[in-house]
Amino acid sequence: MGTETNLPDVEESTEPPICSSNEGHPKPTLIKHSACDVPGLIEIEEVLQIRDTQEGDTKLENYEEQIQNAHTISAIRVAHILGVDLQNGLTVVEAESRLRRDGLNKVKGVEGVSVWQILLRQVSNSLTLVLLITMGLSFGIADYIEAGVITAVILLNIVVGFIQDYRAEKTILSLQQLSAPMCKVARDGQMVSTKTEYLVTGDVVQLTTGDVVPADMRLFDGVNLSTDEALLTGESFPVVKKPHLVFSTRDMPIGDRSNMVYSGSIVTQGRARGVVIASGMMTEVGKIAKLLRDRRPSSQNLDFAARMWRKVKLGILNILGLTGSPLQIKLSEFALLLFAFAILLATIVFSVNKWHVQGEVLIYGICVGVAVIPESLIAVLTITMAVGTKTMARKNVIVRKLQSLEALNSISSICSDKTGTLTQGKMTARMAWVQQAGMITIHNTADPFNPESGTVQANGVEIDNEWANNNGPLKSFLIAVALCNLSAVYEDSGGDLAKERNLPGIPGIWKAVGEPTEIALQVLAMRFGYGKPSLLQGDDFGFLAEHCFDSAIKRMTVAYWNQNGDAIEVYTKGAVEALIPILSADERAKLEIQDQAEKMAKEGLRVLCVAKKTVSPEDKDQVFQRSIESNLNFLGLVGIFDPPRLETAEAVRQCQMAGINVHMLTGDHIHTATAIAYEVGILGACKHSARASKVVMAADEFDGLSDPEIDALEALPLVIARCSPSTKVRMVEALHRRNEFCVMTGDGVNDSPALRRADVGIAMGKSGSGVAKEAADIVLADDDFSSMVSAVEEGRRLFDNIQKFLLHLLVSNIAQVILLLVALSFKDVDGNSVFPLSPLEILWVNLITSSFLAIGLGLEEAQSDLMYRSPHDPRVSVFTRELIIDKMIYGTIMGSLCLVSFVSVIYGTGPGATDLGIDCNNGWNDTCQVVFRARATTYATLTFLLLLTAWEVKHFSRSLFNLDPVRYSNWGALSILPALRQNRFLFWAVVAGFSATFPVVYLPFINRVVFKHQGITWEWGVVLGCVAVYLALVESWKAAKRAFGMTSGGKKILTMQDAEMRAGLSPSTAGCLSLSASRETK
User: Fold this and answer.
1) CATH number for the segment(s) 397-422+645-783
2) CB atoms within 10 A of CB 104
3) pLDDT digits (tens, 9 = 90+) for 63-78
4) What does the pLDDT look like over 951-973, one tens digit per residue?
């Protein structure tokens, strides 16, 4: 962290614990430390003093403000304000008193959802309320069969939705990372272990390597301390801490406050002591969590009446389902519209019967109302979403909120973190420069801990271990980086995992312990067989002395006996600027080293210099002094970075072809961020464009722009480095002002506000903080950017399929309404309108036949060009113009043909509409022969037409005989066969629907008593004739759409080349995304 310079980026911290001179430290109150406990080095007394400059006896003023800015005052002053003795800590009594006052040291996440809230959420939608009203009316008129069926539908909707939501909440709870469970704290002068939740303000806590910082603390004593603050600041490298510094600037970034440590960060090396200045919700992590919890708008400035009205209004909106995602709101509005239409239709029925609302008339009115409502819509939608979430879970995408699936279809921008998402989140040696060996580069590293992963090249030519063995300078370089190293890299052979899975040959997993930079160097040496364990196995090298890394002089040195040469080898590594002055090289050579280091640094690498010297045994005593670090022989430079995931570049390219802009927002240095952006394809030919100066920006430059100035930019930057939480939020807001629909990814606490503001927030499951997961809509279980691309693809597929089954269900309802309204004119001897379909036939068609067909449509595979399209415009709802037109045309044709089938039987064998029996709506008698046969014919016609429609709506404009010309181009006219069998669920749903028609029509008792129809014979000719006419008319309408270029009929099948050209990914401009991708309105 800190101000960027032109010097190479260097890793400032390497190993625990510190062992160095005391330069730069004030003189002392004595605190004894055992320095590096290694052979050949004696314990030293390190003297530390924390001066209290003119503050000791001043009056305590503005307590909270001083503690909030603890980095600007000395540690003794902090202790004085908090009333604690830094040597002895708090007393047990005082700690218990403060615990009662301040509460447990816990960060409360976003409020969880209770079982009752999940249950209430299932019934809080208009369609379910409409079904409840219909159920009540059915019970009221003693139609128990119909009422029972509707009750079953309502229960199915509730159960399926509840199970899905409950599982999502349980899954996310299981992903929550545990905070540090125990910590070491000083109480009554004794260092004791206690649960972190019992920490209080003023406690003195001891930290060592590997600890999770339990609270925000002001450090007062430390040895070579570095912490990983990536979850809070986004910085991918450990931050060196300097307890004795006092800053003058209050409003400095958290990551630059090197005398502070913050809750949730991890100690990567060293040890320290600090005093707790904030716990629980008062920590920096807690403050962000509190912002996320306080999502309700403030009502403090409203009077009682206004507050009550707002509560009532919100309650009504929630009950009616008019809150939530655009799809949820649109479906609830649609349900209310259907309810109003059902009332209108019932009114028409009652008016035609001159408002004699009793018996047959009331039943007919309810029957028409039921016909207009797609009872199975909510169940089908929920099941489709649930299947989609299960599919995504297999791809490591955990969906917390179902509505986020719908939003993924409209995503036009992805704002991604770098560390751990685009990259692997682990350091690896990218290149090494050895003067007499050339440039050594490592490629395609899949596992940074595995020395066998990837390939190694020297000056562009792949090399092996034998080549390294024959190159003396490279061999010396590798020995140096292996021995001047405290990390351990080893292969875990599988152990219990292998036994548990009964897989004796299971490949081992490579693990590492130590500081990330040192691990990367050890892996580099092990690639050529020069790992530290193998070097020390024989008697060639014997450890003699070590000078641990000192952040003041930025280098580390070790000394080993070289038994073969009977000499002492001294190996040193450190920052380039720290080693160049002590090299035994002329100015020209030093300048060459500096230039090479700067070139490597500009590629986003952290550069270390490696050197050595040989000391004769007679000068053995010199190696125990730091002065031995002089007149060193240069061995080489090594560049370390966090490598991109192997699949990231292809995933970014897929996003670009799908019309999605990928932005990198990271806390890393601008050189590092730029290098990674080029490598993964976020930046490419943009490097040479006129807009290149604004494609990459530092956060302070972006934050310095006003909103109008940001909006005036031709395009928003693709890379923003050194981001703060506010930078990410401003980026999301800037995208929204450009009508972009955006995803924000993140793993740290600092990402949570932006995750909440984004249209879809995606958190990391492995490395993500609990607060980030709570704020997110989706969690990536594997932290992989490519999984996000799978989520977008699944979201697009689901949106397409929702349109398909909506069209199918609504066509059925429109057809039934037309049939029932026109059939009002058919009256029996008593003047009652005769049902062309019985109420139970309507329910059977809507709930059994249509439901399984709709579910099958929801399981349709993605179209071949799905990820080559531009994003769907979020301002256009799922009820597109094409869907509305198609449902009216298909529904009118289907309803008319059902009416034709009914009339054909009445007039074909009977006296026509003049004699339609007596009381045939209630049951069978001898006068109902013709009506019952006509009703069975109409039912069979409607069923078969719905089965055919399920296949027709697989695509809105392609012919049934050419549904998938890309996959089945070689089948010619027979392509219909594999296309129909492709979706096996839908295929067998059609087969089952077809087969079930016959027992419903012919089974005794079932046909006459339950469904109020009877078996037919010659009428099957009428049914088949209607099916043939329907097929011809629908195919003619689709042909007209293709011929005149209407809606989807005017769109060709997109290819990869089309998508590449639109995104500017042709060979000459690969990787540079066109920032003005057009949207698609279906």
Assistant:
1) 3.40.50.1000
2) 15
3) 678 888 899 999 999 9
4) 999 999 999 998 888 888 788 77
Please state which architecture CATH assigns to domain 324-387+792-1059.
Answer: Up-down Bundle (1.20)
Q: What are phi and psi of 559, to 5 degrees?
A: -130, 135
pLDDT at 382: 73
Q: Cα separation of 50 and 27, whole Å?
A: 9
Instruction: Return the minimum-mean-pLDDT range out of 298-312, 575-589, 725-739, 763-777.
Output: 298-312
pLDDT tens digits along 97-147: 999 998 888 876 544 556 776 777 666 666 677 778 777 877 876 767 667
**Residue 959 CA: distances (Å) to CA of 402, 816, 881, 966, 975:** 33, 25, 20, 14, 11
Mean pLDDT of 395-403: 80
What single DSSP character describes residue 1007?
A: I
pLDDT band at 282 (very low <50, low <70, confident <90, very high): confident
Q: What angle do CA 767, 768, 769 make, to 5 degrees?
A: 125
Instruction: Kindly tell me the sign of the dihedral angle through the C-alpha atoms of 573, 579, 584, 586.
Output: positive
For every residue of 937-985, DSSP letters joined together read HHHHHHHHHHHHHHHHTTSSSS-GGGS-TTTTGGGGGGGHHHHHHHSHH
Q: How many CA atoms lie within 13 A of 541 on its CB side?
A: 21
Residues recognised as catalytic: 417
Give the Å distances, CA to CA, from 854 to 288, 294, 376, 454, 526.
43, 40, 9, 48, 58
Question: What is the distance between the alpha carbons of residues 608 and 186, in angstroms, rounded to a whole number?
Answer: 39
SS (H, E, C) 404-425: HHHHHCCCCEEEECHHHHHECC
Report the percentage of the chain scoring pLDDT > 90: 31
Mean pLDDT in the chain? 80
Residues ≥6 apart with Cβ < 8 Å to 507: 494
Distance CA 667, CA 91 (A): 40
In whole angstroms, what is the distance from residue 575 CA to residue 223 CA? 19
Owner of token pair 């001083």: 66
pTM here is: 0.71
From residue 124, alpha-carbon distances to 117, 310, 314, 522 in Å are 10, 18, 12, 59
Contact assessment for residue 719 and residue 695, using Cβ atoms and an 8 Å cutoff: yes
- State mean pLDDT over 988-1014: 93
Mean pLDDT, residues 885-900 taken together: 95
The count of other CB atoms within 10 Å of the CB of residue 733 is 14
Q: Where are the domains of the chain?
A: 78-108+183-289, 324-387+792-1059, 397-422+645-783, 428-494+510-641
Among 662-666, 724-728, 878-882, the range with the most confident prediction by mean pLDDT is: 662-666
- Inter-residue contact 876 to 403 (CB < 8 Å): no
Nearest by Cα to 82 from 103, 63, 101: 63
Torsion of CA 217, 219, 224, 225, to 10 degrees: 10
Q: Please enumerate in sequence order all residues whose Cβ is within 8 A of that of 843, keeping only pairs 6 or more positions apart, or say none.
A: 146, 149, 150, 370, 375
Classify 918 as helix, strand or coil. Answer: coil
Mean of pLDDT values over 213-240: 81
Distance of CA 861 to the CA centre of its chain: 22
Per CATH, domain 78-108+183-289 is 2.70.150.10: yes
| Token duo for residue 184 | 């070491």
Cα-to-chain-centroid distance, residue 491? 31
Measured CA to CA, the distance from residue 728 to residue 648 in angstroms comes to: 21
Beta strands in 730-774 (DSSP E): 742-746, 760-764
**Fold exhibited by the domain 428-494+510-641:** Calcium-transporting ATPase, cytoplasmic domain N (3.40.1110)
What is each CA distance from 456 to 430, 461, 512, 642, 925, in whole angstroms? 10, 8, 21, 17, 90
**Left, alpha or beta for 912 (phi > 0: left; psi -120 to 50: alpha)?**
left
